[in-house]
Amino acid sequence: MKFPKGFFWGGAIAANQAEGGYGEGGRGEIISDYTTAGANGVPRQNTYLNEKGELVYVPGLFPDVKPDWKPVTVEGEYYPNRIAVDFYHHYKEDIALLAEMGFTMFRLSICWARIYPDITDETPNQQGIDYYRDIFETCRKYNIEPLVTISHYDDPLCITHKLGGWENRAVADYFEKYVRTIVSEYKDLVKYWLTFNEINSALPRKGSMGNGIESHVASFERLHNRFLASAKAVLAAHEIDPECHVGCMIAIGPSFYPETCKPEDMMAMVEAHQNNFFCSDVQVRGYYPSYTKKMLGQLGIEFNVSQEDAALLKKGKVDFYTFSYYMTNIVSAGSTDELISSKKNPYVKYTDWGWAVDPSGLRFALNLIYDRYQVPIMVVENGLGAVDKLEEDGSVHDPYRIEYHRDHIKEMAKAIEDGVDLRGYTMWGPIDIVSAGTGQMSKRYGFIYVDRDDKGNGTLARSRKDSFWYIQKVYKSNGEELD
Ligand code: BG6
Question: Atom of ligand 1 at shortest distance to CA of 429?
């Protein structure tokens, strides 16, 4: 197994799932401050008072609410992201542990509301600026390259409640201002940026609407404005620091298999891939793909893009492609709700959360992506969410996690042999953090255990799992010592 010299090895976290520090350092409020804890199979909810003052529970990472609704906390509910794993106060200790494992890259996100507590503010919040500077300096001290996500599922609340949501084009301008601020501030420390985490999670799909307030048309408008914001970010970052690299970030779980070799299932797979690649087609190629009209037409969206917007998208193409990979799924012509069949693949295993563990799907995805775009690629999320048992002596025996990473890394090596220009691997959640989907702590991805449970009990102490020592061997040998 050979990885190129200088291949980046690391892990990834997101501010809202790790930092905590609610109300500290002058940070403004974000959506997840009002997102409850769910459970395995129980969705998380956002709690709001509607225009009549009634309490409403709204699911989703981008809750479908009206601007005049008021986010509130409800007694008896638990809001895990407010403290998360307190990376806000533990980052020096945590980065030292990452360095001990041989990390050469650390992907983390900046919380927009720490830099601009209200995104319309004219001047940034100095405490937020200093906080991230110290993090990046700590990374550099250990020769860890920061890979910074500019927006990772933590929209400031003022976007919805002051500006009416992403359908207001002004939000893209405020995003550009934020990007100009952070790139100017950190250009001596940060050379790799990603615009929006899993931008395709905001893609309108059949059956994807929330509680019916938002229409597919508005939802697409929001996405279009995020594309514009991404293009503006790329142009601004390159203007301020011509040496930096700006990438897109796409959720390529699910990659797809047709359920049968029936021709209709094959076409369903093609459409599922078009769904999967729609956002990166825009961000990497710089224009909406040929199938846009048909895809959006099926949702009742009439597609038009102005010449001015088209020119911006063309100029603001990203430099590299990154993605998250967790699983594969099956598609069939009959199951057109979200194209994905609920059927299980008999050839792969499933996690306790029902995610298909399919290492060869990663090789398949890497080849597919590289054939399509021919730009450098990084896998910036991949990992196993599992329940761990903390032993009395502080150890955690997690052979399942070791096996998971070993098998996926082997498939990356094969993809490199296939000719894919893969530059790095930042697995998801090297330190246990709050799950985005379920709000649980017990869905753990880390090599580092954090003493905190699903109700917020625990000391927040960190300890090394068995996988910590395994990944240290892998990372320090540049992927050669896998077994
Ligand atoms: C990705 C997100 O979709 O999946 C992360 O970018 C998230 O934020 C990760 O945490 C794993 O999902 P979950 O629900 O297990 O946390």
Answer: 10
